[in-house]
């Protein structure tokens, strides 16, 4: 039941019950299902992982008719590595941008300090 619910969307279950005595079993069954469904919490799964699982489940057939499931696994592994490395690149770029901003701020502060020092030296010489 958990696999059929969730995904990238919100899932809403509306449980309709009847107050009639003739529908007691169906009402209990509906309430049991609704209670089980309300306890399900899905975590998002990356699309590349889903594709990997699909590729692992299906074997690739070569031109000579033999099955090459290994090719799909290799492709899936490479696809996962590409996704991982892309994430690493994004993180490295963000870190580099942060370091650049910090270095720029430090350079501006150093220049402002040098200007204040120069002004202070000029005032001391003229005094």
From TrEMBL:
GO cellular component, one term: spindle microtubule
GO biological process, one term: mitotic spindle assembly
Alphabetic keyword roster: Cytoplasm, Cytoskeleton, Motor protein
First-listed, main subcellular location of the protein, grouped into a coarse class: cytoplasm
Keyword Cytoplasm: yes
Signal sequence range: none
Gene Ontology molecular function: ATP binding; microtubule binding; plus-end-directed microtubule motor activity
Cell location: Cytoplasm, Cytoskeleton
PROSITE patterns: KINESIN_MOTOR_2
Domain Kinesin motor positions: 1-40
InterPro entries: KIF11-like, Kinesin_motor_dom, Kinesin_motor_dom_sf, P-loop_NTPase
Region ranges (Disordered): 103-127
Superkingdom as given in the UniProt entry: Eukaryota
Family, as annotated: Belongs to the TRAFAC class myosin-kinesin ATPase superfamily. Kinesin family.
Protein name, UniProt field: Kinesin motor domain-containing protein
Organism: Alexandrium andersonii
């Amino acid at each position: 039941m958990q696999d059929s619910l969730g995904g990238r969307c919100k899932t809403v279950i509306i449980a309709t019950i009847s107050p009639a005595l003739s529908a007691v079993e169906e009402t209990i069954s509906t309430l049991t299902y609704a209670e089980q469904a309300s306890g399900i919490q899905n975590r998002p799964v990356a699309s590349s992982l889903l594709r990997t699982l699909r590729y692992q489940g299906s074997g690739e057939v070569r031109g000579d008719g033999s099955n090459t499931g290994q090719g799909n696994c290799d492709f899936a592994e490479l696809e996962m590595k590409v996704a991982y490395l892309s994430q690493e690149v994004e993180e490295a770029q963000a870190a580099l941008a942060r370091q650049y901003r910090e270095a720029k701020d430090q350079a501006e502060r150093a220049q402002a300090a040098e200007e204040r020092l120069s002004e202070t030296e000029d005032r001391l010489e003229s005094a």
